[in-house]
Amino acid sequence: MNKKEVKRYSLEFGKKEKVLNYACQTYQLSRPNKVGAVMALIRECQPQTIEEWEEWYLSNAYTAGKNAFKITKDSLQELGERLFEKITEVVIPEWQEAFSQLTKEDCINYIYNLTINRTFDGFLREKSVVNDGLAKNFPQIRFEESSAELDHAGDIDYLGYISENRAFGIQIKPVTAKANFGNYSVSERMKASFDSFKEDFGGKVFIVYSLDGEIANKEILESISNEIERLNAL
Q1: Dihedral sign of CA atoms 169, 145, 178, 20 in order
Q2: Under 8 Å CB-to-CB from 170, ≥6 apart: which residues?
Q3: CA 57 to CA 73: how far, in whole Å?
Q4: Using CA atoms, how far apart are residues 19 and 204, in angstroms rounded to an integer?
């Protein structure tokens, strides 16, 4: 049986794709607070053609957040112009400086550090957050590491079991990964993963930030407590 060919509408940017993607992610120019929750929007629209989706998006899309505004072609163009400014004024100069100073020893040390040191740091961080933080705040919950076989394993670090079949998810991030964790927002792909987890286990996924092995965003504990009550009431 011949494999069905799926038509693709995405543009190809060749070697420029990496720098465009890097800058866009670094400066959060494709986040819901800039372009809206696009996956949720397209699922609401259920378009049959790309023209239908484009027209519906430009008629209905708003940015997420407190100061939400309607998205237009002009606002998307402005984001593209900001992306160009960031690449030409910040990214390229920074990369040129890095390229000029880069040595073989840097590359060797980076791979070793990434594999050994950072993995161990992350392991200790997760253990401390869960065992010394979450488990003590919620002694009635059974916390387990996410198994590699779990569909959402890449986005869920721990599961907090309410019962054998119901659980909420925990993703642990170091504060150092984002200078200000209040500015962090999950990607559309990760949102879809979190939604899928909720369908499977019933519970929400919470992002817990670690600072020196302790919970940095302590306000998340109240949200987790509310979720436990909701799940227990099901």
Answers
A1: negative
A2: 130, 134, 143, 156, 157, 158, 159, 160, 205, 206, 208
A3: 10
A4: 33
Contact 139, 182 (CB under 8 A): no
Starting at the edge strand found earlier in the chain, the sheet holding 158-161 runs: 142-145, 158-161, 167-174, 202-211, 214-215
Mean pLDDT, range 112-132, rounded to an integer: 91
Q: What is the pLDDT of residues 59-101, one digit of tens each?
A: 999 998 888 999 999 999 999 999 999 999 999 999 999 999 9
In whole angstroms, give the CA distance from residue 210 to residue 68: 30
| CB contact burial 146-177 (16+ within 10 A = b; e otherwise) | beeebebeebbbbbbbbeeeebbbbbbbbeee
What domains does the chain contain, in order, with CATH numbers? 16-101 (no CATH), 122-233 (3.40.1350)
Q: What is the spatial distance between Cα 223 and Cα 220, in angstroms, rounded to a whole number?
A: 5
At residue 179, the pLDDT reads 41
Q: Which of 85, 3, 64 is nearest to 191 (CA)?
A: 64
CA distance 34 to 30: 6
Distance CA 177, CA 170 (A): 17
- Per-residue pLDDT tens digits for 10-47: 899 999 999 999 999 899 999 889 999 898 899 899 99
